[in-house]
């Protein structure tokens, strides 16, 4: 019920924005981070996995969209579908890494992100635009891109809702709590994780694709920028991993703070952002929602 | 081509040992304390700046600056432990919480360095005479030999400390069971803080060595070193100094020999592929022991 | 019926099981005693697929369990508990039970009904919404038992169910185990050092020693067996 | 009167921080200069200029957002581009969409100008494909025959390397090695040895400063030397500061005591230097070519505004075209084509020589010293 | 080995800030005696031991050891003062060898190499199984063997006060007898022992003084004689034990 309220609030907040202003970027990127943090939570919060190389899917999505649109001349919606497919395909390809534990998985996925970037940079410039990347000036339509991101966000929220209520969600949380015990009571760990993984790879690919459409500029440096992973982690953890509302709270709060800092302290922004992150983790090590749940453990089961 | 290949192999070992050195200091903090030190590279770069300013302001040669940097970084690490790390044990998931704190710290350090030292690339004005030695057709820069020596000595000392002395064993025991370590009477926080200090001290020294061998540094390159460090210890196995050496050499060799035949981009790609292959075959790394926790 | 034939398990040079054979007939309770380190837990681990047996054959109702992953063994109808309870701490009791019912293709109503039945049986129903980590050690053992029982297993492997459980809960536990063969229709393998309970519950008792079967028989015979007294019971 | 608001971003951090900050100092000098004169002539009155600068952290996402913010919320009248082709491309899609005019000072990618952007003009930066020509012509004239080209895998260096390859081949030199390496590479010894093994006598790396510094240091450590080594950023003070190892390296620049163009807009060299010193007495580095490019672009932007007497994008663009071939600023002569691509602004070749310091050695029209060729081997220097 | 009196008065403890587990618990343990604590699951027995050892912070009350207030000391300091603790849940260092586990047990006198050698040799005499496996990692031991190791590690320092939390759970009958005998003999040699055990009969048999804990409060206490003579106490224990058919 609380969750329903949150979703409604999100819809009301984002749906009408293009009617009021042409400065869509603030809200666009807010949606972007909400989606990234939410889908990151699928693997990190629900399955207990920390893919440091999450940005790989974002980058793949951006490039798939760019290449399909620019090099192969497909319309944007089809290019975006292709991006999702590419992300999922690569996610499936990486399925063997799911047997790794904890940090090992994290580092290997990071290596994969770097490898992905190198592979794209080795592909012929005719396809990928070389090291300059691709410029999609012909596709410029920020309002449409805005709504595309809106739909992706709704998709991520729906997936999250489904995941937290479905049997898959229960299996995932059991694995997170005690992998071996889960296996002993019949949970197929590899298959369950694979499902969550596929869901978690689809959204960043879509996000990458839509963002490429929005900015019209794709290049290796920003498509595979580790800050994308870092921010997804920071936003999700600041809110509280494992709770549906965690990434929502975390991403909106920190993204807002990030914007404020960036506006008011143009030269000191990274410094202050760093300090904010440190302070947050030291004061609320379980994130905002997690801290609330711990302090008021009676209400814990009502928090979505 | 053969001569180049030979040079590539030698280079791979030398560069690999330098990578190992980066991994070794990170391994103290990450492998032993389980603090995911994402700011490690920044500390390494700070070590390089330490040597740079010791040279500019005090006229100290980088070699003499090493003990100084080690001490200063060690003290800073000791303090930072209490400031940043100690509280994390309250979290559900201290390992990932530490990742975030350290990520924040890396942003802060990067920004501070930029403010203090500006964005330019700098380089230590340091050279050894003769600048290189010839072994048959293979050429080895003297600074690299020096770095190699330091890596070996540090790794040896650390391995001895961790596996042969009681404080070392106590240290390794910390992550195995935090309550039990207090049961035997070990001051958990003091020991952890010392370890953190040791790790940062080594990072400082690593910074100096690294800046003698990979000559230029700027406030932005910390991330590169952090990544190398993590790759090396995941390859070698968490917590094990010798593992880091194995991981470093393996990675260095793969990268450098590949570079003989392909471009640097392909070589780095092959390095990553190797990492992934090794981890899939031996999920705990070359020297790792599974299920320690 | 569970059949274990010449089961061998070695860890490097160390032989934990040196050829164990046993059968657990349907609807019966096999008690397993044995000195610490004699291989009891290792045997359970081999049966339910946590360890890969080095040699030997394990079958349940004629279906071989060798090479099956733990979740597949569970699907064959083998449930087990651990020496130290392993519940899902961050999930409610109901969710803990739901995990075991995931692949049964039951409707939500059925799941709720079965869960309520078993939670009532272990007297945890009023705590059904609490997180499992809030339970005391003894209650966690009961929850662990309920978690496998909901899945209606054919064979239940219990590793030290009474360790650290207070007398009243132990009584409850004994009652449940006693009824299991008849009410649920499953057979039980009961590993425990709690002699009284093992004597009282078991149809047949097996004593293990250093990876071998030292003796087998009913409670009376075991208590009198000089080898068992020497190696396990003490004077 | 209302101020003329000019928007741009600076990178406080990230890959472009150094260059970007060097550049913005040039723009600030121009703003100061213009305002001292009472402002720009616009709509029949003098209007002061205000620079609205924001941070982009070298981040493309940020650029898109900030340029939108500058136009929509800050109401700027005209924009200066951020540093580099990537960021500029991101900014251009925004300015194009919102119908604002943008003056570019550092985006050299040829591809950028093939995208059909209407409202941009590169005021001072020549496209990357032509940039290596002076250096390679010098090498060719001095007798270089085999070229080794290496670059870090980033847009600008990669573009330079591609340009260099094409130019070298056109000049009839053989390209014996062309190789890229990824960002974050720390050890170049093998690359250097490969270049030597390939028999190169012209070494032409096109990477950024940090890598170039590492390369010369390791050239010495590995006893590798080429008769002609040309490094794009070897003319910067940071590079020269590394000491003896920087000697003899060839480079190019558009800003140097010996380069004095007949300036008809903005300050000349001497004026510029003194303005720089008064405005930035505490900055540890001298102005570099980025400063000059950005300064020149700002000067040209001012001229364009005055000429167009409007902030409408198409009027500004027309003015930019009208001014083509009519202006010479500190950075050199200005000429653009329809796409906004810069056609002139040539870069003379310089070499760091013992005692003399950095001297212009090519082309002969502006040379003040003879090039030292071949570069002496390491053991033959004192 | 000289025991010292250990006492706690009016101790209250809470987890997570709002879950109160102990309320005004008092306890006194004398040197040369085994003090038994019994009570149902969740009564707070383990919490009492953890509090004595300093792993939890108290809300009210004080803990004294040999007349000295040790309430403010940290856990490791209490260990150095001579309190040994065998907790209910696993406390071996799984990745270290059996020998190294014992070696770390010698931390309080780590400078005295000779004493370490002696202490470990003596321990191996008492626990031959451990000697056999001295080079294997603790994680490779069976559940019961790990328990020996914990007990052995706790005793290696000749502690003054020994806190045992269900030492014989999961231990074979033959060996539990040995462990109870060892416990008794340590007390007879003067150590102060606090024993928490679900095995009520055994616990009552070797304890000199018994505390019953329920819902985080003292329910009853008395010496062995009290329990033998006082009708009410006797009944309480009998009732308690009769839950089990026969223990
Ligand atoms: N970490 C914890 N967080 C919250 N509550 C806890 C925690 N540990 C114990 N408790 C609660 O404190 C109470 C007392 O626990 P304690 O472990 O001291 O009981 P006990 O008497 O030792 O029980 P047992 O015989 O089962 O070991 C129990 O209700 C338990 O649920
Ligand atoms: N992973 C392992 N690696 C090496 N040896 C092992 C491993 N697991 C068990 N062992 C050894 O196998 C033997 C049997 O152990 P197991 O745990 O089966 O004993 P158990 O009969 O369950 O004892 P307990 O009653 O103490 O629980 C022991 O000697 C133990 O040390
Ligand atoms: Mg066992
Ligand atoms: Mg207890």
TrEMBL record, chain A:
Q: Where in the cell is it found?
A: Cell membrane
Q: Which GO terms describe its molecular function?
A: branched-chain amino acid transmembrane transporter activity
List the keywords (alphabetical). Cell membrane, Membrane, Transmembrane, Transmembrane helix
Q: Which CDD domains match?
A: TM_PBP1_LivM_like
What is one term from the GO cellular component aspect held by the record? plasma membrane
| One Pfam family, short name | BPD_transp_2
Could you name the domain of life of the organism this protein comes from? Bacteria
As for membrane topology, the entry says: Multi-pass membrane protein
- Membrane spanning stretches: 6-30, 42-64, 76-95, 102-124, 144-163, 233-257, 269-293
Supply the name of the protein: Branched-chain amino acid ABC transporter permease
The protein's organism comes out as Stappia taiwanensis
Organism lineage reads as: Bacteria, Pseudomonadati, Pseudomonadota, Alphaproteobacteria, Hyphomicrobiales
From TrEMBL, chain B:
Matching InterPro entries:
ABC_transp_permease (IPR001851), BCAA_transport_permease (IPR052157)
The Gene Ontology biological process annotation of the record reads: amino acid transport
Entry GO CC: plasma membrane
Topology of the protein relative to the lipid bilayer = Multi-pass membrane protein
Instruction: Report keywords, A-Z.
Output: Amino-acid transport, Cell membrane, Membrane, Transmembrane, Transmembrane helix, Transport
Q: Where are the transmembrane segments?
A: 12-33, 40-58, 64-85, 97-117, 137-163, 191-214, 226-253, 260-281
Q: Name one GO molecular function term.
A: transmembrane transporter activity
Q: In which compartments does the protein localize?
A: Cell membrane
Task: Note whether Cell membrane occurs among the keywords.
Answer: yes
Concerning CDD domains, the annotation shows: TM_PBP1_LivH_like
Instruction: Give the record's family classification.
Output: Belongs to the binding-protein-dependent transport system permease family. LivHM subfamily.
Q: Which PANTHER family match?
A: AMINO ACID ABC TRANSPORTER PERMEASE PROTEIN (PTHR11795:SF445), BRANCHED-CHAIN AMINO ACID TRANSPORT SYSTEM PERMEASE PROTEIN LIVH (PTHR11795)
Q: What is this protein called?
A: Branched-chain amino acid ABC transporter permease
UniProtKB/TrEMBL annotation, chain C:
- What are the residue boundaries of the ABC transporter domain, all occurrences included? 2-235
Q: Name one GO molecular function term.
A: ATP hydrolysis activity
* Gene Ontology cellular-component annotations: plasma membrane
Q: Which domain of life is it from?
A: Bacteria
Please provide the record's keywords in A-Z order. ATP-binding, Nucleotide-binding, Transport
Show the SMART domains listed in the entry: AAA
Which SUPFAM superfamilies does the entry mention? P-loop containing nucleoside triphosphate hydrolases
One Pfam assignment: BCA_ABC_TP_C
* Record-linked PANTHER family: CONSERVED COMPONENT OF ABC TRANSPORTER FOR NATURAL AMINO ACIDS-RELATED (PTHR45772), HIGH-AFFINITY BRANCHED-CHAIN AMINO ACID TRANSPORT ATP-BINDING PROTEIN (PTHR45772:SF8)
The record's comment on protein family reads: Belongs to the ABC transporter superfamily.
Protein's recorded name: ABC transporter ATP-binding protein
Protein species of origin: Stappia taiwanensis
Where is the organism placed in the taxonomic lineage, from the top? Bacteria, Pseudomonadati, Pseudomonadota, Alphaproteobacteria, Hyphomicrobiales
Automatic annotation (TrEMBL), chain E:
Q: Does the keyword Nucleotide-binding apply?
A: yes
Picking any one GO biological process from the record gives:
L-amino acid transport
Record bears the keyword Glycoprotein:
no
- List, alphabetically, the Gene3D superfamilies matched: P-loop containing nucleotide triphosphate hydrolases (3.40.50.300)
**One GO MF term attached to the UniProt entry:** branched-chain amino acid transmembrane transporter activity
Question: Which PROSITE patterns does its entry note?
Answer: ABC_TRANSPORTER_2
Residue span(s) of domain ABC transporter: 6-240
**Annotated keywords:** Amino-acid transport, ATP-binding, Nucleotide-binding, Transport
Pfam assignment, any one: ABC_tran
Q: Which domain of life is it from?
A: Bacteria
Q: Family assignment?
A: Belongs to the ABC transporter superfamily.
Report what the protein is called. ABC transporter ATP-binding protein
Q: Which organism is it from?
A: Stappia taiwanensis
